[in-house]
Amino acid sequence: QVQLVESGGGLVQAGGSLRLSCAASGSIFRIDSMAWFRQAPGKQRDLVASITSGGSPNYADSVKGRCSISTDNAKNTVYLQMNSLKLEDTAVYYCNAVIRSSTWSLKVYWGQGTQVTVSS
Question: What pLDDT sits at residue 67?
Answer without folding.
Answer: 98
